[in-house]
Specification:
39% of the residues lie in helices and 14% in strands. The chain is α/β, with parallel strands linked by helices.
Amino acid sequence: MTINVTNQKPAVLDALHTISCTGDYDPMPAIQQTLVDPLLQPLNPNTPASVTDAQGADLSGDILDLITSCFGDTLNVGSEQTVKELLGQTLISFDQGTPLPVAELFAVQAGQQNKMPAPSLRVLYTAQADVIPAAKALLAGGAESQFFASIAYTFHPDTLGFWFQSSTAFDDFKVWLSQQTQTMASALPLATTRLLNDFTTLSLKGLTESLLVRKDDSDATDEHSFARVLVHMLMRYVEQQRTQAGQQSTALDTGILPFTAGELFCPCSIVLVNVEAHARATAAKVTGEWNLINQSLASPVKVVSNTSLSKLTSLPRAAARAAAMGAKQQPGQPGSRSAQVAFRKQPPSELDLLKDITRVLRRMGKVNKSQNVFRTTKATFLKTNRRDPDDFNKPGRITSVKYMPDLHIYIDTSGSISEENYQEAVMMLIQIAKKLNINLYFNSFSHFLSQEVMLRTENKSTAQIWKEFRKIPKVSGGTEFTQIWRYINASRVRRRRLSLVVTDFDWLPPSTRQDHPKNLYYAPCSAMDWSFMVSLAKRYADSMQHIDPSIRQKLLGMVV
């Protein structure tokens, strides 16, 4: 959609809002005031700002709906493109070509303010090079936006954060919070009072302290609930600190970290950040802390208690201690050549797919041990000839054994995949496995994931292998890829395999940042209606740009 903006004063969005903790919970007025009204501020006060489409239709009244449509569980590609174009024309600092989703608009704005390019294969942000220097700069009176953008671009946490200059600054907030809650003690429910008292016992001497405050957007929205009171008080305190800093010309010691817009207005979790601790910590410690937060946010288990504080990272910290495992380094962001890849006009042949799989296997390199054995034989005079060992003029032969990465297949068996499609996909994979002469790891999936099975295809006929396939139970239902991502990422062994999802691409990813496995690729399940499958694959690739910008290069058999 083409957007035309006239007589609009270029804006800078401010994440500060003070949604009341009394009455019914309605974040829409705050979203309107924070995200929409600044975009409609006129340059000439006597004439209203105008936002129209290519046909001249007024879009001013649709801006709120367009923006909020980008905060859903799945990515709305059309709305994303429209809102990015709108923000690019109305904000002073915004890159409408950013691969990040609209939900991270505050991060994009902060990055542009500090001339920080968007994360990509060629632009990697790290704790050592970005987060720690930005923390030191903030302590020295630098811009809080640089510290915020460095964390957002490095780790992309889907949460609401607040930074405090030091543990002392956090203690000052706790004193102020106690004073404020005492004045409204008669109106607070007993559960909220108890949780607020527990909150004042927290310490922020480490890098972060994180809390779960809601199970989902509909939870803890009652009047004077702990989640509403805590966010309201944090926002009021930031507002007060800004006023005092402006009057006294002093540096701020508290601020907001609006990592995603959805969490800004209805947070399920809150992360409190100690800037001084970040400035003094090692890069490994900072990386481990934020990876642990992201791991906790991605966990499907969310336990929020009404009687005691629910710490976001308590379960993974306990598991890490029990397993005596260090934090894992996040994989780097992939490349951006994906947009230049063209889709095939005809369905791929079995040979096309075999070539693509072989190319990826060779690129991945050798492993210590696998089911994919690669034997090579060469002539050499260093070994005697087996048939004529006394003739030194005849070379012997040396056979070396190497191991390529295992091949793990995930076949889509959701409701959109017919039995015929499934059989075609399986037969194609059988032929490929026979030509590679390897065994396969196999799961079927819908919105459930079946148990992993190793299918021994080596030295077996096609009929024998198909008979083995038919014995494996299939799951059915909807489609969900993120369970495969989590399943692969949970095991170092599975991360080293070439994982191939065979699907019709009829699925949209979540709008939040996810950890996509490095060696996970996709292939079409069968010929089906090729033009329709290509359209679904294009939609999937477009909606995956914030998760894996190089996703088109991972569509085996689909692109040339």
